[in-house]
Amino acid sequence: MLSASDAILQVEHVSHAFGGVRAVQDCTFSVPAGSISGLIGPNGAGKTTAINVVGGALKLQHGRVRYAGVDTSGWSPAQMARQGLLRTFQLSREFARLTVLENVLVAATGQIDETLRGALFRRRAIRARERQLVDQARQILSNFGLDALRNDWAETLSGGQKRLLELARAVMARPKLLLLDEPMAGVNPALIDRIEGHLRELRDQGLTLLLVEHNLNVVERLCDLVIVMAEGRTLAEGTLADHRANPEVVRAYLGSSGTVGGARV
Amino acid sequence: MTSSTGYYIANLAAYFLIYCTFTLGLNISFGMTGILDFAFVTFMATGAYFAGVTALGPSTPGSEIYYILGLNWPFPLDLLVGAAAAGLLGGLVGLLAMRRLRSDYLAIVMVAVWTIAWNLVSNFSNLFDGTQGIVGVPQPLSTNFNTDPNSYVYVFIPLAAIVIGILLVIGYCIERSPFGRALRAVRADPDVASTFGKPTFRLRLTSVMLASAYAGIGGALTIEFIGAMNTSGWAIIETVIVFTALLVGGRGNVFGAILGALLVRIVIIEGTGLLPQIPGHPELLGAFRNIAIGVVVILVLVFRPQGVLPERRRLYFEQPNRERKARKSIRAISK
After folding, report:
1. Whole-structure pTM over 0.95, yes or no?
2. Does A89 contact B192 at a Cβ distance shorter than 8 Å?
């Protein structure tokens, strides 16, 4: 267990039930600041529910969430976002009838200009700020190889490009902690390499990443810490190598055949 | 052109201008924010009634016409009261319904709001004289220009044009602003928008209040132009027609909203009115009108779902032709 100063996120005895179904039960784990951590486990283990509770999309029913040293139990997603905690979704959810550039622009947090008063009376000040934001957004889009597509409707992008756009959008928001829900789902191997590169870059810039992922090759290459969940509980925390030696984890998720998601375990 | 044709055309122009306030308003709530604002016509009626009872003097005992207020205030105060009343009602509905409900459920609540308001006004005759409605509302500036009922339209048109001009500019500024962009993000996916820290509830509430105020201004202009409003003037079908106009013109685009007002309010509604009557069945004209509306909605949604003037892709600090050139060169390189 990490001490409070090392951990950017501490999930303590969190439970969440949908009616009678207990998706997450007494779940406890910590995410060290500046790391890439993985959250793995079989389908239905409660990984996405845990992320939804941490991010505020689902109401916290029991337990406590501490983020950046502050008790954020019961905060809304918007509140969390303003404090620098951001999440992406299992399926790409771009803003469909916004251009690629606008998708990134809208992600900039703390936009005091997004008011009716701003739209009508502060046009000059906003124009100057918009110019800064556009420069910043285009820089990010160039990094992700999307700048040429900036004026296309986001809905016209391919699946892989949408994944990159999700990441670009998240970077624009300048989060401290990014929760990624299966960022590699449905992504071709070449693009997986690129996304991995981007994630490492983000970590090197000081961002903390927690990723839910089934592709254990990716988890092995990327993650400093791997948290295993099963049946709503945290089963183990450690490196993937530790988990390979843990019969409980092998039984619950990794399986006796020795491979999951293409990775030897 | 005979004077009666000129008068007819002038009246059409006046109705078109009034209708622009509705489509421009719905363009904010439905067009930009994606709220299925099926109570829209209720806000129009609120604006009309409140503008009416603000402009009228107190209801005289014994006249058997009952209404609240009767302030005898001059133009444009009546218009502002109408807009404010409609905006506040929109805000109240939004506060009660939008915190938890989204899309389809909110649409049902909006229909319920119309039903409640319509029945309240119809049956509670001390409010706005029940189904009879209020009549004899003074026409703004008519005494200043010494107009008679036939020539008033020529005073009303420039007046309405100024109001619509202002509303159009406001709509355009919103469309091009970070605020408008946030509204469109909420329209696309409110959950993701809130993930990025957008105050989705406040954005949706502002949008509905503003759209309601637009509807209220349209209602106020209506009652100022024709001098009367009753419950038959805001049947639920009227909301459907405004939606049709916006879908046809192009939602999310202020110029689409204007075009929709022209195409639907003038071409379809007036056009079906010119159809020859079937002897012995005068009621069929109304039915034809509604059938035409239904057919137009289906055709537009199937063949041109974004409307005649679709939402435009916004370029930021770059010229459109430069973008085209860049695309050409990208294509050339990829060949």
Report:
1. no
2. yes
